[in-house]
Amino acid sequence: MITDVNHALSMRIQELLSQKNMTRYRLAMKSGVNHSTLKNIIHETVKDNLLSTTILIARGFDMTVSEFLDSPLFSEEILNI
Question: What ranges do the domains of the chain cover?
């Protein structure tokens, strides 16, 4: 399955929200990323996500950005860049 970075990011956030039994609102509060921005990322209405936003989201999950990106979703073999 080939996917783009925005789709992989959306899927990873949803995966972690489920695993950590966390709401988008709580993630927004912990990460400092506006709730509407998170919603737009999850619904893939943002064309280019900033690395700084991804770092903040990772922090909101109490993870490093490396841990956040350590997922098969970000495998170079399936990403269309």
Answer: 5-72
